[in-house]
Specification:
This protein has eleven helices and no strands. The protein is an all-alpha fold. Helix 6 packs across helix 8 and helix 7 runs antiparallel to helix 8. It is elongated. It has helices at residues 2-9, 15-44, 48-63, 66-72, 74-77, 81-105, 109-117, 122-152, 164-174, 177-205, 208-216. It has one domain (2-207): MetI-like fold (Orthogonal Bundle).
């Protein structure tokens, strides 16, 4: 424990700088994944052909090894932060897209028709009816996306993206157990923080009626 603390406090290890880099390497791909995943889900959920293509493409992306995805973009963007952020964004899109699609498809059509009968426009139906019902399902997808991105981001150290992954990669190269632990503990702590925080958000976003029904089940 003493050696770990000394490692964190050593200015040469630039803990603050690596923390900022790692947060950027996580938060930017998560944000991009949410925006693209939700947009694609909304665009394709009404069309059987488009939804089939989108879902299967997202499953194909999941099947691509993360390391391969990281190195695919190196010839285009060289090594560094950008190719890692793009690869992590692609990794995060599938759970958001799938949960958006499942959430929208799972809404009772009678609720949509009732809202339309009350004179609501398509935008009002989306914001006032569909969005509250989809949010809990979407939050679960965002949680999966966030944890996957945070847990995978250290691999960015292989292509010079910076962050906690550099501690782990350098530690492996130097056979330095303290450096490996220093990076691994920080990554695990951040992943747990995202998991707990988004779990709480998911519960709070679930409408009271749905929570009561879930407890009854």
């Amino acid at each position: 424990m003493k050696e770990l603390i000394q490692f964190y406090l050593d200015p040469r290890n630039d803990l603050w700088g690596q923390t900022i880099t790692f947060f950027g390497l996580c938060l930017i791909p998560i944000a991009v994944s949410i925006v693209l995943g939700v947009m694609i889900g909304i665009l394709v959920y009404r069309n059987a052909v488009l939804s089939f293509v989108a879902i299967n493409l997202s499953n194909l992306i999941r099947a691509i090894p993360v390391i391969a995805a990281l190195f695919i973009f190196v010839p285009i963007f060289k090594i560094g932060f950008l190719p890692a952020a793009i690869a992590l964004s692609l990794l995060g899109i599938p759970p958001v897209l799938l949960n958006t699609y499942v959430g929208l498809r799972g809404i009772d059509p009678a609720a949509i028709e009732a809202a339309r009968g009350m004179g609501m426009t398509d935008l009002q139906i989306m914001l006032r009816v569909q969005a509250p019902l989809v949010l809990p399902v979407l939050a679960a997808g965002v949680r999966t996306c966030a944890v996957q991105v945070v847990a995978t981001a250290p691999l960015g150290g292989l292509i010079g993206a910076g962050g906690y992954g550099e501690y782990i990669i350098d530690g492996v190269n130097r056979l330095d157990t303290i450096e490996i632990l220093a990076g691994s503990i920080l990554v695990a702590a951040l992943a747990m923080l995202f998991e707990i925080g988004l779990s709480v958000a998911e519960k709070r976003l679930t409408p009271a009626g749905l929570r009561v029904r879930a407890v009854g089940i």
